[in-house]
Specification:
The complex is a heterodimer. Chain A is of the alpha/beta class. Chain A is built from 17 helices and 18 strands. Chain A has a five-stranded mixed β-sheet. Chain B is mainly α. Chain B has a domain at 70-272: MetI-like fold (Orthogonal Bundle). The model of chain B has no long low-confidence stretch (mean pLDDT 87). The chains are: A alpha/beta, B mainly alpha.
Chain lengths: 503, 309
């Protein structure tokens, strides 16, 4: 009897232990608050905490910096900032999670492509009125373009103050350029580049003359041959500079010309054979020494080094501003924000505050950076601190609402780089559709099928891997079967309405 | 399965520890698999995050139209079904063969080594496998082009641009990856067969092949049918990694590598339309459910013991 009783007790205890340990493992996930709900405020109101999700590398000493930032914010706005920094690889998931789960979130860093989904699901709000009411700094810097990041009138974000449009360029390895005495100034178009590529092909067999990778199809991304009007299927020819007729991308003359040229280069061996499928980025190719040049874009803040190798740029065209130019990095306000008005006030403040931008970008003076010159134009490392042991060197740069409020880093950029950028932004020929983004809802069924066709043909055509004479007709035929006409009709209608409204 | 009725009281006390041990698993199953079933309604709604799932407006069947209206509808359905049929049949045959071979080994150490080796690819991430395939098939640096075709004097093939080879390539890669798992199940099944049968067969002078045909396979029949039925239920699903990563998302191969899962991914990546994506999932699971019920019914008529339920 006793033995049976003992056995039963043991089995009961064990089963309870198992159950208990499983439940214990499940529970207990505390979310950390990295921000300060700071000290005493002289307002009788509770300071509002704005949660901001941005892209960058999380830094060790972020709490220290945020304390300083929140001191300033409490004083000026009676608000504190809870900054969540998410790395490039995981920000889209984190953003999706935070917006879907209803966690407290006010300001969200996003771009036009992701915004479409959020607008459809009603996860971000229209900012037009808020910009009008609270966007003093924003309107000061952007003027009429403050609402240019909109889709069918729904302003999804305030653009970060970065480059507007860019110049298609070829980035070439500086050491090789010097070795063969290549005259960079004389290269002003893709055709001018051919003799150079021939030299490289003959003398450097292990180096690809022009490195192309599949997720940066050059004709769509860098060369700005057409204004993609968001999807790159129904487009404006000639970058939309001189016409407003929506045509299929396959009928665009400039698109065809570029594809034919790239195909010629592919056949001549100037482009890497796996261009249509490889996902190895430019940096890695340059670092490994297997690329001589790559088609890129240029603006005053283009990096001078790629993968550790010095790069010189030759311009391949003019400065063009396409319709989606301000849609690359913007800040939106989440629909589950408790107080969108305060969130907009915070965003506007960040636009205009040098102190906060400097703190967020580089850290505290004396500890994380010091001025490098007497004019206080450049900053650099303080004594004893460098890239290896710095505890705060966020370098958020284009993820900040207005990075021009902070100082450029020595040796990376010249002291007046921000002035150059402002100047650059004012130049540039604009597409007639600049500021227009069409609403995809009426054609979402067709768009699903069209996207599939585009995925099928775009990479092979734009990397030069196939013959455009053969494949462009096939591309066009499949697009038509998938509903291209309806897309063109709808887009043209929306574009005409928008243009009429602009008059 | 009919519950076994005992005469007399049902002794609760005896089973309590068992139920307690089952509880975490059951709770997890309920939360993860049963509660989300109500989310199937999303397929019929236009999801508005502010209003929540219940208050979002109904849109009837319009979320499903993009799956059928596209000219690719036939292609993706055909690809998904045919590939899955090929996978099921080839994987089952191969894993049976391997299981029989491994089981016949005399050396215990070798047996264990082979069992682990055959399972290893199943545990590898599909991304790694896609790069292994890339190392073999890369147009300029791949092993096949450089070390096999060139010495034979043949032209190098641009593998990622020629759709013709890919059904074979994908079947090989899937077999290489998936055989191990089924193999282990079959090894366990074979180990359970009474050795007395084999001895009797040998005494009667049966060859190896006859032994397999008349002893091993019939004893494994139930296991084979169970595994096949389970696979049939997933016939409209595809291994996303296999069809997206391994062909390196190469556009030229879409006609032979586009399945329902990759099609939905490519269409909705930018649109972000949750309703349409849910519609695709609903469609796949509905077809799978119907097929399992039909097949189970047929199997039950033919051989009652082998049916799943």
């Amino acid at each position: 009897m006793k033995k049976r009783y003992l056995k039963r007790m043991c089995s009961l205890i064990i089963s309870c232990t198992v159950l208990g340990s499983v439940l214990a493992g499940c529970g207990g996930q505390n979310s950390e608050q990295t921000g300060n709900t700071g000290g005493d405020s002289d307002n009788s109101e509770e300071p509002y905490e704005v949660t901001m999700l941005t892209q960058g590398e999380p830094q060790e000493d972020q709490p220290r910096i945020m304390e300083k930032v929140n001191e300033i914010l409490l004083r000026d706005l009676n608000m504190t900032l809870n900054l969540i920094v998410s790395p490039y690889g995981s920000i889209s998931q984190q953003r999706q999670l935070m917006l879907t789960s209803g966690e407290p979130l006010d300001l969200v860093y996003l771009d036009a492509a992701s915004a479409t989904g959020f607008i459809n699901n009603n996860q971000i709000i229209d900012l037009s009125d808020l910009i009008d009411k609270y966007g003093t700094n924003i309107k000061k810097y952007w003027g009429d373009d403050a609402k240019s990041a909109n889709i069918g009138g729904f302003v999804y974000g305030v653009p970060n103050f970065n480059e507007v449009g860019n110049i298609p360029a070829i980035g070439m390895r500086k050491d090789i350029v010097e070795k063969y005495n290549i005259d960079v100034e004389s290269i002003t178009s893709l055709e001018d580049l051919e003799p150079v590529l021939e030299i490289i092909k003959e003398n450097e067999p292990s180096m690809t003359p022009v490195y192309v990778c599949s997720d940066q199809p050059p004709v769509s991304r860098q060369l700005s041959a057409v204004d993609p009007l968001t999807d790159g299927i129904a487009v404006l020819d000639n970058s939309g500079l001189d016409n407003t007729t929506v045509i299929p991308v396959t009928q665009s003359k400039s698109y065809r010309e570029k594809c034919e040229l790239l195909h010629k280069w592919y056949e001549a061996g100037y482009i890497n054979p796996d261009a249509a499928t490889t996902t190895v980025q430019f940096e890695s190719a340059f670092k490994a020494g297997s690329a001589f040049s790559a088609i890129m874009v240029w603006h005053p803040m283009s990096p001078a080094k790629f993968g550790g190798v010095d790069v010189v740029y030759a311009y391949l065209g003019d400065h063009i501003v396409l319709s989606g130019a301000t849609g690359n990095s913007d800040y939106a306000i989440a629909a589950n924000s408790k107080n969108p008005e305060k969130a907009m006030q915070m965003l506007d403040y960040l636009y205009g505050s040098e102190e906060v931008a400097q703190l967020l970008n580089w850290g505290e003076e004396g500890i994380d950076w010091v001025y490098a010159d007497d004019n206080h134009d450049l900053v650099t490392w303080p004594e004893g601190v460098d890239a290896n042991n710095a505890t705060y060197h966020a370098q958020l740069s284009w993820a900040l609402p207005n990075q021009f409020m902070s100082s450029p880093w020595q040796d990376v950029y010249p002291a007046d780089v921000f002035e150059q950028m402002v100047q650059f932004n004012q130049e540039g020929e604009r597409s007639k559709a600049f500021g227009f983004s069409y609403n995809t809802e009426p054609v979402s069924t067709e768009l699903a099928a069209l996207k599939n066709v585009q995925e099928k043909y775009r990479n092979s055509l734009e990397t030069g891997s196939v013959d455009p004479d053969e494949y462009l007709p096939m591309y066009e035929e499949e697009l038509e079967k998938a509903g291209l006409d309806k897309l063109i009709e709808e887009k043209q209608k929306q574009l005409d309405e928008w243009l009429a409204g602009q008059e | 399965m009919r519950a076994k009725r005992k005469t007399g009281k049902f002794r609760w006390r005896k089973w309590i520890p068992i139920f307690i041990m089952m509880a975490p698993g059951l709770i997890y199953l309920f939360i993860n698999n049963y509660i989300p079933i109500f989310g199937l309604v999303i397929a019929f709604k236009k999801l508005d995050f502010q209003a929540g799932i219940w208050a979002s407006p109904w849109v009837g069947l319009s979320n499903f139209t993009y799956l059928f209206k596209t000219p690719d509808a036939m292609v993706i359905t055909r690809n998904t079904i045919l590939y899955n049929l090929a996978f099921i049949s080839i994987n089952t045959c191969l894993s049976l063969a391997f299981a029989i071979f491994i089981n016949d080994m005399k050396n215990k150490l070798c047996k264990k080594i082979y069992q682990s080796a055959v399972l290893l690819p199943y545990l590898m991430s599909i991304v790694i496998i896609s790069y292994i395939v890339f190392a073999l098939l890369s147009p300029d640096k791949g092993m096949i082009n450089n070390s096999i075709l060139e010495p034979l004097g043949k032209e190098p093939v641009s593998w990622y641009m020629e759709p013709g080879y890919w059904p074979l390539i994908l079947i090989i890669v899937n077999a290489w990856k998936g055989v191990g798992y089924n193999c282990l199940v079959f090894i366990a099944g074979i180990a359970g067969i009474d050795p007395g049968y084999y001895e009797a067969a040998q005494l009667d002078g049966a060859t190896k092949w006859q032994q397999i045909r008349f002893i091993t396979l019939p004893c494994l029949k139930t296991t084979i049918i169970t595994l096949t039925l389970l696979n049939v239920g997933r016939i409209f699903y595809s291994d996303f990694g296999l069809f997206y990563q391994v062909p390196m998302n190469s556009g030229a191969l879409f006609d032979v590598t586009n399945t329902i899962d990759t099609y939905v991914y490519r269409s909705l990546l930018q649109l972000g339309n949750v309703g349409m994506a849910s519609a695709a999932g609903f469609y796949q699971s509905l077809v799978g459910f119907t097929l399992i019920m039909i097949c189970n019914f047929i199997v039950r008529k033919v051989d009652r013991d082998s049916a799943l339920f």
